[in-house]
Amino acid sequence: MTVSAVSYAELAPAKINLALHVTGRRADGYHLLESLVVFAELGDRITVSPAGEDRFLVDGPFADNVPLDGGNLVLRARDALRTAFGAASAPPVSIALEKNLPVASGIGGGSSDAAATMRALARFWRLPVAAAELARLGLPLGADLPMCLAARPLIARGIGERLEPVGQMPVLNMVLVNPGIAVETPKVFGALASRDNPPLARLCDGLAVRSWLSGTRNDLEAPAMSIEPSIADVLDELRRSGATFARMSGSGATCFGIYDDAATASRAAAHLAGDHPGWFTAATTTRS
Q: Does the active-site annotation cover 15?
């Protein structure tokens, strides 16, 4: 057994669905999706450190909303690696989560935390595991795990496990806004009017993504707004603040606005935060 004597930290970036088309439903109930996904420079942070016994520590602005039991995806990710490689190769560890993103908010917080945990522990425990094997081990924890492990611009298909990298994706200046509401994903899917919708048009050139987006959808936006009407207010505010494009991410309730430059995005975020102090508001850029 060879274990690192130092700590390792990993960013768990916010996952943003620039477009999300629901194209069908499998017999087991899982929905089939096609989604263009990018990741932000903003996110949670996972740190793993040597310890005599397993520990899980949580701090940050949204720490109070994080479960500390075995239902937490961070702990399930740890246990999945330990089961796969054996306790001798995966001894006790301290995992610290800095929770900067709201929970149940449509930006992959829990899945990204779990993916960051798997990446950090693979380094810490010096496991002989390739990226494809990590994705296979992560998929049972949730359909978003493989894309969050990749953490780069991609098209996700199937239930989220079929990934196609997108090259030449420009950095996008964004503001993320959540109205302080947790929307339950099963309820949003349950409110879908149609589950067999047209797929994404082919994105031939990542550099043309901003014009390409105008012909895409988030099929979960309308059902989410029927459950939580404040999502429409967020989108209206983003557009009024100068966003050239605004949409809900994932199953909500977080929405994003795209701006022409970082300075405009920062001013918009400051304005929105001042007008709506109860909202989570943050300017960020996407990772290329």
A: yes
